[in-house]
Design goal:
The structure holds two protein chains of two kinds. By secondary structure, chain A is mostly beta strands. Chain A is built from no helices and 28 strands. In chain A, strands 1-28-27-26 form a four-stranded antiparallel sheet, with no helix packed on it. Chain A has a four-stranded antiparallel sheet with strand order 2-3-4-5, with no helix packed on it. In chain A, strands 6-7-8-9 form a four-stranded antiparallel sheet, with no helix packed on it. In chain A, a hairpin with a 4-residue loop joins strand 27 and strand 28. By secondary structure, chain B is of the alpha+beta class. Chain B contains five helices and three strands, in the order αββαβααα. The longest helix of chain B has 15 residues. Classes of the chains: A mainly beta, B alpha+beta.
């Protein structure tokens, strides 16, 4: 994304209120917001509910549905299937629920049980056939979707030494990344014979990685790079493009640190998200949102990233989640401990 | 549950005299008064120790100097000193401090709670846990733990 002249502004379009406790996580429906289907956003909260928000014809957002009475504790994360028909939600109650959007209703069609306690994150692979979950029990589970909304656990991945904060599938390959309280980032791939999954790489302090809890990870649109954020107040960009895979076709090359961005947040960075147009957004416990882009004005060969915009006091309290709209890449949603969700638009203001 | 006390004979100190906060007469009574060290100490001094009938002040787990506050930046850090190096109650004490401040301070406040450097065997691990808000949130959804915390906080609301 190139920004010529002018100054940039992250303008608040709307504040969505309704949750009665902190909002932990957000997910844009990837199938909505195009071809006349109104944009749709899911949010989940410490109030044990999930809310579905929809953009009206006038551009104003309303709560379409409240999914309640299923999870009995905090709903920590949510993720739409690539088709946008299913929504997976994970909870501190140790379960993952899968909801189907039928007509105007959301119906819980499956409950995935297996984790010992808090389930902290969920992610669908690109084809929508696999689901990954992770939690405080230090494990990552891979579930395969069967006909009739049945989910079968195909692997339990052990390797993290502390709770796993987030899982995220690669946007192109069936490669999974997990990050956690043990300060590490782990890359998982299927064995050559397609039988089981194993850890192909660990990025930790020894590989110039994070020195405290890693809270989140996000891939660039083609999956060549990923960005991680941490309690150590830094964001790190990792690159896999320069070392083509030697193991198999279904695995990216090994990841190496490209650069570290520090000094931009004063407290733990909880969320990071890479837009389709290449803008990285971060949200942190300092109530702020920051945007970064790859720096092009660098004459040397080493790629670097620069701050594009700082939005202090984006919320009244911690920012827990920032997510770019995949269909409208200048629209950002954020969620906070203050119980609100905000829809932002990145605008170029002429000088 | 713990059988036998972690620290069977803690030293009990005298409580500090309660200072009456002087109300200046010559200033605008509607002016917002900044939150200071003593005000925050007042919120936490009467928290009951999880295993003794004494307050954190009486056990010198916290003193007025444990509190660092910057009202302009809405920031507080409380540094507490467990009575013994291997105190397994350190996490619960830290959790009590965090919850009490969460319930007493304006929501704009950022709070850090930590063990005094060098006073606990697993200092780094306890500090990390106490400052991970996801773990704190999960702990407070545990009814047994929440009951324990509420019991310790009860005297502070008296």
């Amino acid at each position: 994304m190139d920004f010529l002249g002018g100054s940039l502004e992250l303008r608040e379009r709307q504040r969505l209120e309704g949750h009665t406790d902190r909002v932990w996580s957000l997910a844009w429906n990837p199938a909505a917001g195009v071809r006349g289907i109104p944009a749709m956003l899911a949010s989940c909260s410490g109030d044990k509910t999930v809310r579905i928000w929809q953009e009206g014809p006038s551009g104003s957002w309303d709560c379409l549905a409240v999914l309640e009475d299923t999870h009995t504790r905090t709903v920590r994360s949510c993720a739409w299937s690539p088709s946008g028909k299913l929504l997976a939600t994970t909870s501190f109650d140790a379960t993952t629920a899968v909801w189907e959007h039928v007509g105007g209703d959301f119906e819980c069609v499956a409950t995935l049980e297996g984790h010992e306690n808090e389930v902290k994150s969920v992610s669908w692979n690109t084809s929508g056939s696999l689901l990954a979950t992770c939690g405080r029990d230090k494990t990552v589970w891979i579930w395969e979707m069967q006909p009739g909304n049945e989910f079968e656990c195909v692997s339990v991945l052990q390797g993290h030494t502390q709770d796993v904060k987030m899982v995220q599938w690669h946007p192109v390959l069936d490669v999974l990344v997990s990050v956690g309280y043990d300060n590490s980032v782990k890359i998982w791939a299927e064995d050559g014979d397609g039988d089981d999954w194993h850890c192909v790489q660990t990025l930790n302090e020894a590989s110039s990685g994070h020195t405290s809890t890693v809270w989140a990870v996000s891939f660039s649109s083609n999956g060549d790079r990923m960005v991680t954020c941490s309690d150590d107040l830094t964001l790190k960009i990792w690159d896999a493009s320069s070392s083509p895979s030697e193991t198999s076709d279904n695995s990216c090359g090994s990841w190496r640190l490209l650069c570290t961005m520090s000094g931009y947040h004063d407290r733990a960075i909880f969320s990071v998200n890479w837009s389709r147009e290449g803008v990285i957004a971060s949200g942190a416990a300092d109530d702020a949102i920051r945007l970064f882009v790859e720096s092009k004005d660098n004459s040397v060969d080493v790629p670097s990233y620069k701050l594009l915009l700082r939005k202090d006091k984006a919320h009244d309290m911690d920012v827990n989640s920032v997510q770019w709209n995949p269909k409208e890449p200048k629209v950002l949603a954020s969620a906070s401990d203050d119980g609100t969700i905000k829809i932002w638009e990145l605008l170029e203001v002429p000088l | 549950m713990v059988t036998g006390l972690i620290n069977a004979n803690p030293i009990v100190y005298e409580r500090k005299e309660r200072r009456v906060r002087s109300a200046p007469t010559d200033i605008d009574e509607y002016a917002e008064e900044p939150i200071d060290q003593l005000e925050i100490f007042d919120h936490i001094r009467d928290i009951k120790d999880p295993e003794h009938p004494y307050s954190l002040e009486e056990l010198k787990v916290v003193t007025e100097d444990s509190v660092e506050v910057n009202d302009r930046h809405s920031y507080v850090r409380v540094t507490f000193t467990p009575t013994v190096e291997h105190c397994s109650m350190a996490t619960v004490i830290g959790l009590c401090l965090r919850v009490k401040l969460l319930r007493s301070l304006p929501s704009r406040y950022k709070v850090d709670v930590r063990i005094a450097p060098g006073t606990h065997a697993t200092e780094a691990a306890v500090n990390k846990q106490l400052n991970d808000k996801e773990r704190v949130a999960a702990a407070l959804e545990n009814p047994n733990l929440l009951e324990m915390v509420n019991e310790c906080l009860a005297p502070t609301f008296a």
